Amino acid sequence: MEAEIILHVDGSRRALTIDTRTTLLDALRDRLGVYSPKKGCDHGQCGACTVLLNGRRVNSCLVFAVAQDGAEVVTAAGLAEGGNLHPVQQAFLDQDAFQCGYCTPGQVCSAVGMLAEADAAQPSYVTEGFRPEDSPAAADLDDEEIRERMSGNLCRCGAYVNIVAAVRQAAAGGSGA
């Protein structure tokens, strides 16, 4: 069975007809030619496919595209504005937070989403007391909190030290090493 849907991807309205079993990841890559989200495990375990869906980070391999009709999808490629990198993208460059780069688009989108979650006082597993009022703002995240909040994104190269440093820099609004 097929369905017609509209997705707003990186600021562009995109109409497509898809099989109702198509994942958002496959719709983006195979139907729309948006290659920033990567297909890693295809089981929601690695985070390489992470995108921002209506402002929240999701593993795009786990959601059906047909259920996202009308949704706003932002990939790592759509974060930059006016020729300027997003602060998280810049921090990843400044901190050399990648090696092969395969996981980087998912890491970047996850970092953007988790910083928004922290700013909204959403606690993580390691947040003291598990109460929103105790949850740190993005600027107050320590390394343990960053590691926990980014734990759904794996890096086969092991660039975690630099990824944490990049997220810390972006959270603090910093601009370099």
UniProtKB/TrEMBL annotation:
A Pfam family (short name) is Fer2
CDD domains the record matches: fer2
Q: Domain named 2Fe-2S ferredoxin-type: which ranges?
A: 3-79
Q: Which domain of life is it from?
A: Bacteria
Under the heading SUPFAM superfamilies, the entry gives:
2Fe-2S ferredoxin-like, CO dehydrogenase ISP C-domain like
Q: Which UniProt keywords apply?
A: Iron, Metal-binding, Oxidoreductase
What name goes with this protein? Answer: Oxidoreductase
Q: Which organism is it from?
A: Arthrobacter mangrovi
